[in-house]
Design brief:
The protein is mainly α. Helix content is 64%, strand content 0%. The protein starts with 5 loop residues before the first helix and ends in an 11-residue tail after the last helix.
Length: 56
């Protein structure tokens, strides 16, 4: 059987860690967490982005 390449193994480990951290969150809680972390990264790195307007 072929051994998994190191980069792919690292990706799988990261995905498993993220799953374990977020499995208890509801869909709404998960979205709120993603938005919060995105805002923190935007501020930390001074990222300039255009916000999309919400169309309903």
């Amino acid at each position: 059987m072929c051994q998994e390449p190191k980069p792919m193994k690292e990706i799988h480990e990261i995905r498993e860690k993220l799953y374990e951290e977020n499995k208890h969150l509801s869909h709404e809680e998960h979205i709120a967490k993603v938005h919060k972390e995105a805002e923190e990264a935007i501020k930390k790195y001074g990222i300039k982005i255009k916000r999309a307007s919400h169309v309903t």
